[in-house]
Amino acid sequence: MFYEVTIIKPKNKKKKIISSKELSDNYWADFENKQKLFSTKKNNVADIRKN
Fold first, then answer.
1. What's the whole-model pTM score?
2. Max CA-CA distance within the chain?
């Protein structure tokens, strides 16, 4: 479960609010990309650590 995140600039001004849906989508997209890299035959440990 992801909670809404508020990014605050100096002087307590809101810069951006990231919704829980956006956080979830980003997490799972990143997870799938890492799984694809892991499952390739030409897997290189340095490539996985880059991401």
1. 0.56
2. 50
Sole residue written with tokens 């992801």: 2
Coil, strand, or helix at residue 43?
Answer: coil
Are 48 and 34 in contact by the 8 Å Cβ rule? The answer is: yes
Q: Is the dihedral of CA 21, 26, 28, 29 positive or negative?
A: positive
pLDDT (mean) for 14-23: 90
- DSSP string over 29-41: HHHHHHHHHHHST
Q: At a CB cut-off of 8 Å and minimum separation 6, what does 34 contact?
A: 48, 51
Confidence of residue 36 (pLDDT cuts 50, 70, 90): confident
